[in-house]
Amino acid sequence: MLDIIIVGGGLAGLTAGMYAKRAGLDTLLFEKMFTGGQAATTDLIDNYPGLDEPISGPDFAMKIENHARKFGLEIQYEEIISLELDGRIKKVITEDKVYEAKTVILSMGADAKKLGLDKEDQFRGRGVSYCATCDGAFYKDKDVAVIGGGDTAAEDALFLAQYVNKVYLIHRRDTLRATKIIADRVVEHEKIEKVWDSTVEAILGEGNVTGIRVNNVKTGEKRDIAVDGAFVAIGIQPHSELVKDKVNMSEAGYVLTDENMRTNIPGVFAAGDLRQKPLLQLITAAADGAVSVYTAQKYIIEEFGV
Length: 306
Ligand code: NAP
Known about the structure:
The protein is α/β, with parallel strands linked by helices. It contains six helices and 19 strands. Strands 1, 2, 5, 6, 7, 8 and 19 form a seven-stranded mixed sheet that branches. A five-stranded parallel sheet has the order 10-17-11-12-13, with helices on one face. A three-stranded antiparallel sheet has the order 14-15-16, with no helix packed on it. Strand 6 and strand 7 form a beta hairpin. Helix 1 packs parallel to helix 2 (57-70), helix 1 packs across helix 6 (282-304) and helix 4 packs across helix 5 (180-188). The site of NADP nicotinamide-adenine-dinucleotide phosphate has 20 residues, from helix 4.
């Protein structure tokens, strides 16, 4: 039986893995796709302490994984089908096997929200994207829209403005939620046209996106904007389906924990963007990962005596 099973290989999970192995705990991390989570699809990271030069998201993710592996972390690339968390021994079930552990750390992260428009799914990969850093290069010298007003939308607009002809930033209010330093850069950027107080009503086109229809929520005026790409950056959705009705969650689906990363189930902890907290960033994901292992280790000693 393992000491800790970590579910998800984003920054929270990898940090938990590194801390757990460093603490001598028998640990296995499950990842169904690629490690690094949202960091791995971020263009540049420049707000992580110690990185005095910006680093690319994929490079950063690789460094964290290498760091964890240096301490012997084993990563199992396999999808978990279900979790049995109630008993003293936790069971993690995949297609082929049932794994047992004294504790489970949930770190499945979060992903981009959708606008919920007709044809949004149909146009995904044909002009609709949820990852500017992944798909931006396809839009060199073209016109694109970014929808949203948070850090992701602001960073996406700035990133795309380096390559494209023009960026329309569509936001439902007239001030950005993004961090001031980034928001100011967006407001001042001459290649980014700010379309304030507006929501996207429709994505236009047949085979590929040719434009978007926006609605001014103050005046009711509608406007069609010709674009080849629409980058949706309206927030994120926690990946909590696996633990739905198993651990306590917020209405939005974030797992509720105390400040020691404990969920309502003894021996089950949550870390990173999956967890309800005020700031979803790399620095807080890493901190959560470390704290979750500290608490899990205390729990193992108290409950199992080793
Ligand atoms: P966010 O902060 O939740 O912002 C979402 C934005 O989309 C808001 O401006 C919101 O408008 C708008 N929005 C939400 N639903 C909408 C809808 N249905 N239609 C139109 N607009 C909608 O999401 P995020 O920007 O993805 O950021 C998520 C978290 O990651 C945040 O904590 C953020 O700070 C963090 N993050 C940090 C960095 C960084 O530090 N470098 C980079 C990226 C993300 P309202 O403003 O009107 O609510």
